[in-house]
Amino acid sequence: MDQPPPPAAARTWRDSLRVTPRRTQPLVKAALWLALLLYAAVVVYVVFLARRRQALVWNPGLVNLVPLIHTIRDHDYIEGIGWWNYWSNIFGNVALLMPLPTLVASTTGLRSRRWLFAIGMAVSVLIETIQYVWHLGVPDVDDVIFNSMGVLLGVVLWELVFRKLHRRVAYQVLGARPA
């Protein structure tokens, strides 16, 4: 038979240290929002403010609206641009938005794969639009394609790994029922 909790005066200092859903839930949510904001700051820095961007002189000839034409052409001249520059552009664009679906799903509670993918695509298009309008970086449709691949991988990772982990943490730490 369950006994009622002791009156406030009878509680010990150990009772005040117990982890309860009421105490941990706001901290976890705040930590997730902080992680999303830090991630957004890193993306803004890498895409718009990084040192390599400052040496770039923008001109309309840099804009690429034909899918994969520059990527294929650059591969043909890989010795001229360097292996590192070529592959870091491709894999960097894929990796750039991979964490976004997990962070958005964890902070907002949004679970729809379509919406998570759509948000990632919108962020990618927004980045390229800002690059075009403000003449920062090189607006390239290939970046949208590779960013979208990263978002798709992020959604798959969310489904396979993080969603299960998120459920377990919500159940064990926060006392919520598993969804």
Overview features:
single chain, 179 residues, mainly alpha, 9 helices, 72% helix, transmembrane, Teicoplanin_resist-assoc, Glycopeptide antibiotics resistance protein
Q: State the helix count.
A: 9
What structural class results from the helix and strand content? mainly alpha
What's the structural domain tally? 1
What proportion of the residues form beta strands (DSSP E)? under 5%
Order of helices and strands: HHHHHHHHH
> How would a textbook summarize the main sheet?
none
Rg for CA atoms: 23 Å
Mean pLDDT: 81
Q: What is the helix fraction of residues, given as a range? A: over 70%
C-alpha geometry? elongated
Secondary-structure map with pairings?
Elements: H1 13-17, H2 21-49, H3 51-54, H4 69-76, H5 78-81, H6 83-96, H7 99-108, H8 113-134, H9 141-172
Description:
The protein has 179 residues and is an all-alpha fold. The protein has one domain (21-172). It is built from 9 helices and no strands. Helix 7 (99-108) packs across helix 9 (141-172) and helix 8 packs across helix 9. The model has no long low-confidence stretch (mean pLDDT 81). Pfam families: VanZ.
Give a brief outline of the structure.
With 179 residues, the chain is mainly α. It has nine helices and no strands. The longest helix is centred in the last third of the chain and has 32 residues, at 141-172.
